[in-house]
Amino acid sequence: MKFLKRIGLYGVSGTGKTTILKAVVAATSEVVWLQGSDMVLQAANMSLPEFKCLSDRQKYHFREQAILNAVQIQHEQNKHVIIDAHLAFLSDNGGFENAMTRQDAEFYTDYIYLNLPATIIHRRLLNDTARPRSRSVEESRNCASA
């Protein structure tokens, strides 16, 4: 029986998580890539705007359920799992909302955190035509240091 890795690839939007994971998946059939935000929204059975309206406790519950679902997926597919994820999100009040749960800490065997200068992240966000996002350089800097 092979040892299966569970890797969390973390970083703010624009650090290159999707680009890296597309290349990894194209290079090997031994890995399943799960998108953390999609997993959480599937666990909650709701859209992102609906999810954002939930209480912190409700969000935490669905984030934990998403990781339990990832355990099941890995068991069924018998492959290494890489999940792109966020440690925190910029909240409406200018602070940060923690996105990592106890289940996350117990699930992952490895963590990779992509950390880039805010100016590079900002430029990538502005040039991303596939997923238009807006954020000031200052917001990018704040997110990158969270």
List the helices and strands and how they pair.
Blueprint: E1 6-10, H1 17-27, E2 31-35, H2 36-44, H3 48-52, H4 56-77, E3 80-85, E4 88-90, E5 96-98, H5 102-107, E6 110-113, H6 118-127, H7 137-144
Parallel strand pairs: 1-3, 1-6, 2-3
Antiparallel strand pairs: 4-5
Oligomeric assembly: single chain
In the CATH hierarchy, what is the class?
A: Alpha Beta
What percent of the residues sit in helical stretches (DSSP H or I)? 40-55%
Give the strand line-up of the largest sheet. 2-3-1-6
* Overall pLDDT confidence: 85
CATH topology: Rossmann fold
CATH homologous superfamily annotation: P-loop containing nucleotide triphosphate hydrolases
